[in-house]
Amino acid sequence: MNINTVITRQLVDDEQRIEQTARLFGIHFPLRLEPAVYALAGKLSPDYNGGYWEFYTLSNGGFYMAPYADQDFQVICHNGYAGDLSADALGITVCLYAYSHLSFSDIAGFAETCAQQYHWLREYMLDHPEAQSILAAID
Q1: pLDDT tens digit string along 55-85?
Q2: Which InterPro entries match (predicted)?
Q3: Distance (Å, rounded) from C-alpha 24 to C-alpha 43?
């Protein structure tokens, strides 16, 4: 891969959400990944109290979701990080946490998918305006 390649994101249309997540994660999206993401958002941010999430695909094959909100979220992590993240950065952060955790699943194909998604999302995140804060939060 060319190191100068810019990874782009595309919003998944509402009518494509189920098809897109089923293609990427199968039945494990609604049963494992989606609940993990929402639970992690609640654990990391006292400001998060549910709501609608946007889904994004990445040009490198990645996927993430982020709260649909025009606000920053206070984030407090067990690694000592504390700060504010945009809704997009919070989504990236909790998806990276979820992918990392679920990559150790005993469901072999799903574990590999989560590991690959972690790397694709991390690659995209490195060019995000809040990359340093996200890195501090996931370190």
Answers
A1: 999 999 999 999 999 999 999 999 999 999 9
A2: Antirestrict, Antirestriction_sf
A3: 25
